[in-house]
Design brief:
The chain is mainly β and 359 residues long. It is built from two helices and 28 strands. It is 3% helix and 45% strand. Strand 26 and strand 27 form a beta hairpin.
Amino acid sequence: MIQLNRRDVMTAGAALAAVPLIGAGTAEPGWEKLPTEAYPGKRDDISFADPLHGWYGTGKGDLFRTTDGGASWAKVASKPGTFIRALGFVDANTGFIGNVGTDYYPGVTDTTPLYRTDDGGVTWTPAELGGKTIVGVCAIDVLKTQRIYQGKLEPRVVVHAAGRVGGPTGLLRSTDGGKSWSVSDLTAQAGMILDIKFFDEQTGLIFASTSRDAASTEGLILRTVDGGKSWTPVYKSGRAAELIWKASFVNAKVGYATVQSYDPARAQQLIVKTVDGGKSWTELPMVMEAKARQFGIGFIDEQRGWVGTMVGGFETKDGGKTFAPAPVARAANKFRVVADGKKRHVYAIGTEVQRLTIG
């Protein structure tokens, strides 16, 4: 029976040391390894509120902050027993910190799935869930939008947090910037939830798996048009031992997601692509390499993007039709694109924290 290797998924520690890095050698001009504290495995998420202010977390419960665009980092908080799995910041002060939860990884004792900070990550307050909860968070989506109120347009922040790897699954939703939350049990819809994306208050996608059983689960994408009250499957991989891990959208129509396979006999790695806002998806072959299990994905436009895998990074310049090795470190779990005037900074976080500046 195929089993989901938790160390591969979350820490990518000893397993990574034994895997050759495809594409290693001469670094692509512009890619930088940022000066961060050493960590035995992969870090899972990085979030920027603006070109200067950013944060990343670790499975040890450490939160690091930069105020100079990643040139330097300082530890601003440490909460042993918490596994910082996901981050989402509204501005330089206010953000949300997702914890993967207990009963999955050794050493995780914190049962609080989501925290809020209003001082740049120094202090954390548990999200007020009204007595309900979910087990853990693997992804946070922060949507800045507007609404008409008494004849005026006013800003509105909608936040979703969902999880988790290994299940069980649930969704947290706030339409008032995190002051109040609704809690939804999604165990009937998905076995695991790994990522989430909303385009407006009503329309969104969940990237998931059909089952909690790694041997039988299929990759799954769900879509809602009613703010998460109901979900419709829009993609199933049809192959066992697969998950949809992470997604990246360049606009409301065009997006990509990684298909993570745990089938040792499967060498062909795939990504999926949508051009209609997630209503339908097309599979694209990425690379023929059994060890290249996928993690994060990030695109700066409809043509150019990167995928992080267990053996390093891959880049496409033609919208996913072809891929070539790229000097992105192993197990890059999340890519973030940050606009900075005419420039764009692409951040990749995994066994290293890296930055590519374009423009």
